[in-house]
Amino acid sequence: MHGLINRAVQSFVCETYGQSCWINVTEAAELGFSEFEAMLVYDDEMTLRVLDILCAKLKRPRGELLEDLGTYLVSHPKMEGLRRLLRFGGETYVEFLHSLDDLSDRVRLAVSDLTLPVLELREVSPAEFQLYCYPGLKGYSSVMVGVLRAIADDYGALAMLSHAGTEGEVEIISIVLIESAFAEGRQFDLGARG
Length: 194
Prior knowledge:
By secondary structure, the chain is α+β, with helices and mostly antiparallel strands. It has helices at residues 3-17, 19-28, 44-58, 62-75, 80-87, 93-99, 103-110, 140-155, and strands at residues 119-125, 128-133, 158-167, 170-179. It starts with a helix and ends in a 15-residue tail after the last strand.
């Protein structure tokens, strides 16, 4: 698992549950360290062990915890860079949804050795979509549900999201857009400010 993913989990836990929670989890996982390096690659089993221990300590299901991680990745001020990367997907929530097919390529432009699973958006109607999350990163669809919820808020859109099942190993997220301009979205400028 890429160190950036592990660092995101670490940051989420420290910001949400506290540094002591994170230290307890890393000790219980017997990592031999408490801080992941962002540009290293770690064994997937290590990351899954950390998540299992975290879920057990917090008494929360993994999917629910990963959805919260997805929300954190978009909404927390420390994660503004990722939010900006996602917001380059379009001026509206629907444009953003259509840009998800290219998300793994955009991420690879930013971090060449970080490979995310392929996403495929299918439009059921102008207000209903299905996002197909192909295999490659366990729990990715749960993280994406959190990301999609937070980005909808970011755009000021009202959307209902849910897991819609699987086709083989492909997980499907249902997205129903109730209103595209439900509230005022968060400020976003295409050009970075100095």
